[in-house]
## 1
Amino acid sequence: MFAPQAQPETLTAGQTALENIGHLAPMMIVALWSLLHLLADAFAGAGMRQFQRRLALVGIGLAAAAAASQFGTIEYDDGTLVFSGFLVVDQFSLLLDLGLLAVAAAVVGFGGDYARAHRFEYGEQESLVLIAVFGMMILAHAADLIALFLGIETMSIAVYVLVGARWNNRRSAEAAMKYFLVGAFSSGLLLMGIALIYGATGATSFIEVSHGIKNVFREWLEVQPLVEDIEAQTVSASVRAQVEARVALGIAPAALAIPGILLTLTGLLFKISAVPFHMWTPDAYEGAPSPATGFMAAGVKIGGIAALLKLFVGVFYLKRLVASGYAWTNIVSVLALVTMIVGNLAAVRQTNVKRMLAYSSVAHVGYILVGIVAAASFYGSGMRTSVAASADQLGWAHEMGDAAVASVLFYVLAYAVATMGAFACVSLLGGRGREATQSHEWSGLAQRHPAVALAMTVCLLSLMGMPPMAGFFGKLFVFKAALTHTSIWLRVLVIVALVNAVIGAYYYLRLIVSMYFRPAPADPVGIIPGRGAMVVAAVAAAASIALGVGAEGLMRRTQLAASGFVYPPGVGAKGEWVDKLRARWEAADEAEVLADMQAEDAAEAPSEPAAAPPAEPDAKAPPAAPAPGGQDDAKAAAPTPTPTP
Amino acid sequence: MFETSAAEIIFYLFAALAVGSALATVTRKNPVVAAVWLVATFFAVAVNYVLLTATFLAAIQVLVYAGAMMVLFVFVIMVLDVDETGDAEHRRPSRIGRVGYYGAVGLGVGFVLWVLGGTLARLYTTTGADLAGQPDFGTANAVGRALFTDYLFAFEAISLLLMAAVIGAVVVARSRRERLKEAAQVGLDPEARHAAGLHEHEAGDLAAPGPTPEFDFGLPSASGHRGGTT
């Protein structure tokens, strides 16, 4: 049944393991490098910290190169199951790997300077970042409930330490304590949910769980007539006991599965801080050292969203689970609504920049949840959008579902880039032993440090959703995906999201106005020494613009990552969808080349100079323009995607 | 309808014991007493492992958790010399806090009883995992084979997870020592010492006045900036 798995049987266990390690090269490099870094730390003196950071960056670069060489190649179109179906390597996970490695590079890039300036430098920092990224990559690659839990735990434990590492600040300890307690609690919920799902389906692998869930509900449906009989008292007394036992057997798995699904959902929503579970977010974000905050806001969110997509959109997309009274999508829709409103309204009131960004990250989770609901609705109930469902319509629904997943990926990546940039700027500002996070300390920043103010402005505009930036296209794609579905509820969600985007603009713009048009305080704070944060902020700002101007390029990559999302890896169905996508691109590119040639012919005829500047207008026409280097996705963007040529 | 076997009676007995002693673990104020209750939880869970024919796991549970881990816990508690007369015991929670606390506990206990009652009355059984298929299920051999084939990656990844936890413990524990060292180098004013999380009784060790009061990191931003470098 699984073509790639049939092959290893001829190999010895050792050869299979080696082959699997090759498939998982980015992850293995990260794991190895975390140990290597730790070893280097054991022998390194305090003066070698800079060298250690460079070493960590080299490792991240190697892993990114490995991931970039894998992403987009035809070999992984189908998805390859590795380690007995424990993990999967497909385009989705490889794209997320690239994003996570970029976040890790940024954290390592400015984490050291911050720690030095605030006098809590410690050699294990980069190692912990690498272990956390390893956990996030497990989440991106997970094909098993156990892998999911393992990834969440590995990520969380390393991040708890990063949050609490600033020993000379009580807020840091408080933040770590809060994050740890809430995190441990949510891990418990997640584990309980996994146990119940295992009880209902008898499996932990995603493929088997998704089959098992179907059986669970089939059995449940089968005993429904018997339930009616019992309620109508038409069952004779002699067989009544037997019938009741049969009903109990039929209902029990569903009675386990539904609480299991809800507990798992709660556990994951805690991790990404959706609203009723967001209480820890502002305190933990404020108290944590700024690089760790950025890591939590970008890396942990990417990991959590990947887990949500994999488990809920990819496994629990059954019609009965997304389009009925007890569907999880109903709950997530309401939570998305509340998350957007509460996050934005709370952010408006904040005077502390870190708390403001914390609440804004809560609001962004709300927008992302809209995309997740849209994706699940397409996969689960896509057929209901038309009167008579045919194979074509089913295919259309799946295509739209893929588009929704792609838009969520786009949103998350664009959000991560802008968030990393914003927190790099936050970490820069400070001096004489403390961080300048009060918003009045930011006023007049443009006169003192124009570069920092500019980078912060670009990142904030991207978070706000200003058109040329990546954040705008993220919102556009998510809302477009949600509006394609005929569900009224999704339309309401989009309208609320649009209103919220306007509220969000208020507090982002307020900070920008304060930086540019308010006079500086009498006793202004400086910036901490070190180039790392400045480089990260500049790259993040440039990438925000580049990903916005070249949105087509990133969109193609996310589409590639999301195509055939719900199909199990290794059986070929996923590959067919990717093939279709590639064929469509080729046709589009050919049409593009043809149009270009015609345009060139037309331009060359009247005069010379018209041929000179074709690069810019080309890139600015989003729907029709070719992706920067779009044709060969094999050389897909490195961690920080290069600007358009 | 009630076909309660001896195994089921043992299961419910030890499941109740596990839950009860787990509750005792989190409610005892004395950490050593709590640790002993935790041992009781481990034993009760081990009995349930035996009922599931996971004998090897049960043995490991007793050896590693009830044996080694508990010794470690008690050791850490002794070394840390936990202050039992903290602020928390002197502060009486408000009426609303107490009502909420007991309400939540009542709801939780009620829910557990409801589920247990429902289970006992209806005899819910699930198809679940088919364990009887493998005759050597639960033996050390089978566990070892599963661990190094199907769960090889999980096995190795967990070692990295534990490594992260160990690093975390080292970072947190060492920071205390560094704190004292750095505080001894620079003279600390009481405010900064408080901000750095140093207790009063430690202050005597580091009363030596230092050259410059450069150490004032981490004051909560609300209280503003004090002192500092020139």
## 2
Amino acid sequence: MTSELNLFRIFILVIGMSLVTYIPRALPMLFLKEFRLNPSVENFLKLIPYAALGALIFPEILFSTNHMVSSVTGGILAAVVAYFKGNLLITVVAGIFGTVLYQWLFL
Amino acid sequence: MKRTMLIQGLKAGIPIALGYIPIAIAFGILSRAEEIPIEVSMLMSLTVFAGASQFVAVNLLSLGTGIGEVIVTTFILNFRHFLMSASLFQRIEKNLTMKKLSVLSFGITDETFSLASVTELDHEERLPFNYLFGLMLISFFAWNVGTWIGLFMGNILPTLIQNSMGIALYAMFIGLLVPAVRKSIPLLFVALIAMTAHSLLILLPFLPSLSSGWNVVIATILASFIGTLIIEKEAFQ
């Protein structure tokens, strides 16, 4: 892992990774303005954030810490705070608090 | 006005930064444990700036996987940003230069995208460049600082904290989703469909097992598509 050749290969790898990550991020932003989108496509794109949030949250949240019940505890506490309070920062702190509390009490 | 937008963006990004630091620390610790050269890990956080794929890359490197395979995996994992970029573009202030758009493109992650997409600013219909730039800058900064902490002093953190921090980003996603679906039943449906679809893609044995990146992409497209049909049907009635 430490030889010169290997280090060079890994640098090439990182450059490659950054390109294949950047290109999908940039293409729509840079070239979409040429087109006039039809209303259905616009509706579709507007729903993407909420669909993506759903898909990102579940089921991965179950495996987000080393203990499933503690993750669920944090998630539920975050959801309750988000529902009644709505503040993002407090929600994140509540989620961490719920998980830490569970792990501290029961593990 | 421009400056206050930048500051507003930086402030709005604090929850993301809070979630990124522990994850980036974990990344630093992992790459140190797998004996990846420190400068490579730092360069990765600076130029790739995408959590999941960086973890996977370190993992594959430690297994001795070839360069080509790691790059293809990274592409598959991060292709969802293509959808996010197209969606976010509809919400950014119009007539930005290519230079500014290419800067903003670099900052698209699951978290900056989600936060920016659900943000409603006073007096602004679309999101100004400075606001998004601030939001992305603080996230990028946190990701890199976290990486350095993990690389150079990761082992001094208490295990309880290390174990629990994985919840932070999910709590943030919940904090973004819940207030939105509280006000709108169709959005609630879309989110639930996406969760169900994603679970089925993982669980059903007869579906080909795809990488998690593709699963998210397929679940997102499917749920948005069904949601579009529902909304348009309602609009006609």
